[in-house]
Amino acid sequence: MAYSVKNSKGQTYYLHGKVVTLRGGRKQQIYYFAREEKGKDELEAMPDGYKVVENKRTGLPMLKKDA
Fold it and tell me: What is the pTM of this model?
């Protein structure tokens, strides 16, 4: 079961993450929220050092590094 968040509009989003390769060949971990669970990319817990914030205009949840 993926980590889920309900936004202020009542929509449920599920946390996903994957490693992508950048143009220079460097690999980087990215995190994103989606309305549906996608089997292999879903995460069961929020990564350490991050918090969930919501875009005020669109209601889309995002991860932000916790200061």
Answer: 0.88
Dihedral sign of CA atoms 4, 7, 9, 10 in order: positive
Q: How confident is the prediction along the chain (67 residues), in pLDDT tens digits per residue?
A: 899 999 999 999 999 999 999 999 999 999 999 999 988 899 999 999 999 999 999 999 999 998 7
- CB atoms under 10 Å from CB of 5, counted, come to 16
**Distance between CA 31 and CA 15 in Å, rounded?**
7
CA 28 to chain centroid, in Å, comes to 14
Q: Are 7 and 60 in contact (CB under 8 A)?
A: yes
The domain spans of the chain are 4-65
Measured from the Cβ of residue 17, the count of other Cβ atoms closer than 10 Å reads: 14
